Amino acid sequence: MKLNNFWLEFKKGIIVENPTFALVLGLCPTLAVSNTVQNALGMGIAATFVLLGSNMIISALRRFLPPAIRIPCYIVIIAAFVTMVELFMKAYLPALDKALGIFVPLIVVNCIVLGRAEAFANKNKVIDSIADALGIGAGFTLALIIIATIRESLGAGLGVLMMIMAPGALLTLGFLIGAVNWYRIIKKKRALELGCASCAKCKE
Amino acid sequence: MDVSKLVMIIISAVFVNNFILSRFLGLCPFIGVSKETKPAFSMGVAVTFVMTSASVITWIVYRYILQPNNITYLRTVSFILVIAVFVQLVEMVVRKTNPALFRALGIYLPLITTNCAVMGVALLNNEMFFEAGHPLAGSFILSLVQGLAAGAGFTLAILLMSGIRERFELMDMPEAMKGLPVTFITASLMSLAFLGFAGFKL
C-alpha cells in the first residue's frame, strides 16, 4: 500500500506533471545547459539533489515554519543545499562546474524547487515529499536529456551549429511543446469521436 | 578607468549577450508578461530598476561583508536574501508613496524575486569584476553599468516580443502551435537575429 503510494507520487512528476513540458517551469536552466547531454545530466542530478534535500527538510519542518515568513525560510533552506552542490562541484567536478557556470548557483531561483516546496512539501508527509522530489527531479532530468539529445545530435553531430547555440534551444523547446499539445488535441478529438459508448469508465 | 570599457559592457549586455535571448536569464517573465506591450514595458522598467539596485547592493555585500570576514562561500545565500528583502522593501515603499505606480508595477514586483535575471546579473558581476576574490579597478561602476544595461536589454527583448505577439492574436495558425510553442519559435528567430551582433568586434 505504502510502496504503491510512493510509486504514484514518483510517477506523476515524470509525465503528468512534467516540470518542463506540462508545467513549463524552470526554463532558464533547461535552455541554457541543454547544449550537450553531459551538461544536461549534470544539471538534472544537481537540481534533483537540491529538490530532494529541500523537500525533505521543508516537509519535516512544515509544522514549525511560521506561515507569514515561510517563503524566506524556504529560500534559505534551498540556498543551503545549492551551496552544498556548488562546493561539491567546485571540488570534485571542476570541468562540469565551468560548463554550467552561474546556472549552478541559479538553482536557488529555479521555480521548480520553490514551487514544489510551496505546492507539495508544505502540505505532505516526509516520505511523500521524497517521492515527489525524486519524481519531479527525474522528469526534469528526462526533459533536459531529451532536449540535449536533439540539440547535440543535430548541432555537434550533423554540424547545424545553430542548434547548439542559443536559438536552437528555443526552437527545440518550441517544437517539443507544440508536439505535446498536438498529442493532447488528437487524444481529446479521438475521445470525442468515440463518444461515451466506447469508454469503459462511464459504464461503471 | 576608460569610457571604452563601459561602452563595451553596455553593448555586450544589451545586444551581444542579451540576457534573455543569448544567456537565457529571465525567461519566465519574458514568456509570461509579453502578451501586450503596455504591461511588458512596465515589467521591463521594474526589472531594470531591481537589476541595477541588486547589482549595487550585492557588490556592497560581497566587498564589505563577505570578503573581509572570509565567508565568500555564503554568496548564494546572502545574495538571494538581500535581493528578496530589497524587493519587499521596494514594494512597501512604492505602495505608500505612489499608489498609481504600485498599481502598474505592483503585481510584477513579487515575481521579480525569483527572476533569475536579477540573481544572474549579481552573480555575473561577481564573476566578471572580482578576480580571485579581489575587485578589479572600478568594479563598482562596472557592476552598476552592467546591471542597468542588462535591464535595458531585457526591456528591449520583452518589448519586441510583445509587439510581435499582439499580431499573433489576429493570425490563423495550427491549434497546437498557439500560445507557448509559437512564442518560443519566435524567440528563437529573434535570438538568431541577435546572434548577428556576436560578430561585433569591440
TrEMBL record, chain A:
One Gene Ontology term, aspect cellular component = endomembrane system
Q: Which InterPro entries match?
A: NqrDE/RnfAE, RnfE
Give membrane topology per the record.
Multi-pass membrane protein
Where is the chain membrane-spanning? 42-61, 73-93, 99-117, 129-150, 156-183
Q: Which Pfam families match?
A: Rnf-Nqr
Q: Where in the cell is it found?
A: Cell membrane; Endomembrane system
Group of enzyme by EC: translocase
Q: Does the keyword Metal-binding apply?
A: no
Listed under subunit, the entry gives:
The complex is composed of six subunits: RnfA, RnfB, RnfC, RnfD, RnfE and RnfG.
Record's function text: Part of a membrane-bound complex that couples electron transfer with translocation of ions across the membrane.
Which protein are we looking at? Ion-translocating oxidoreductase complex subunit E
Q: Which gene encodes it?
A: rnfE
UniProtKB/TrEMBL annotation, chain B:
Keyword set for this entry? Cell membrane, Electron transport, Membrane, Translocase, Transmembrane, Transmembrane helix, Transport
**Enzyme Commission numbers on file:** 7.-.-.-
Pfam entry (one)? Rnf-Nqr
* One record GO biological process: electron transport chain
Kindly list the GO CC terms recorded for this protein.
Answer: endomembrane system; plasma membrane
Give the main localization category. membrane
Enumerate the subcellular locations listed in this protein's record, separating them with semicolons. Answer: Cell membrane; Endomembrane system
Q: Which domain of life is it from?
A: Bacteria
Q: How does it sit in the membrane?
A: Multi-pass membrane protein
What enzyme class is recorded for this protein?
translocase
Q: Mind telling me which residue stretches traverse the membrane in this protein?
A: 6-28, 40-61, 73-94, 101-124, 136-160, 180-200
Where is coiled-coil annotated? none
Please give the family membership noted in the entry.
Belongs to the NqrDE/RnfAE family.
Q: Which PANTHER family match?
A: INTEGRAL MEMBRANE PROTEIN OF SOXR-REDUCING COMPLEX, ION-TRANSLOCATING OXIDOREDUCTASE COMPLEX SUBUNIT A
Q: How does it assemble?
A: The complex is composed of six subunits: RnfA, RnfB, RnfC, RnfD, RnfE and RnfG.
This molecule's function is given as: Part of a membrane-bound complex that couples electron transfer with translocation of ions across the membrane.
Kindly provide the name given to this protein in its UniProt entry: Ion-translocating oxidoreductase complex subunit A
Q: Which organism is it from?
A: Candidatus Taenaricola geysiri
